[in-house]
Amino acid sequence: MTLQGEHMYLRALEPSDLDFLYQLENDESIWEVSNTTTPYSKFILKQYLENAHRDIYEVKQLRLAICLKSTETVIGFIDLFDFEPKHKRVGLGIVIASKEERGKGYAAEAIQLTCKYAFTHLNVHQLYANITSDNKKSIHLFEKLGFQKSGEKKDWIFSEGRFKNELLYQLIHE
Predict the structure, then answer these.
(1) Strand order of the sheet with strand 62-68?
(2) Percent of the chain with pLDDT over 90
């Protein structure tokens, strides 16, 4: 199965994800990567979950929960966004919520599963990721998985009182 890995599986969002989603979306330490500037209410997130079943071809995005097989625990989310079927491309973003779960290979496995899904079921030609130039761990992760740096947007992200460059990474399916 495309969304089953050795240590994890990816699944659609469930109503039971509300508390985890609320905690993650209101974690100011990741607002920079999610382009968030204000907190989300549980009411708004509940509405989001109620509409999460909508087709990626309609809403141009898909969020999947990253679940550990051993414990059935949700440890993060992986997003496909700005889906462009005509141009056969989609953006990819990932967050592993707990610092204790980072660095264990879970993000790499989730990205590989998502790329396989996108190439197989969405028939995309490429996936891309936007990464700030100071996010060395993400740069290393995406490069290790075959993504190539193809551009740099100068002073693209304003965060914590300063501008940061954003790098564009692409994985093109040959």
Answers:
(1) 8-12, 62-68, 74-84, 89-96, 126-132, 162-172, 148-159
(2) 63
Q: Could you report the per-residue pLDDT of 23-37, keeping only the tens digit for each?
A: 878 877 777 767 777
- The Cα angle at residue 29 between residues 27 and 33, in degrees rounded to 5: 100
List the domain boundaries for the chain: 8-172
pLDDT of residue 115: 97
Of 135, 146, 24, nearest to 74 by C-alpha is: 24
Fold classification of 8-172 (topology level): Aminopeptidase (3.40.630)
pTM of the model: 0.91
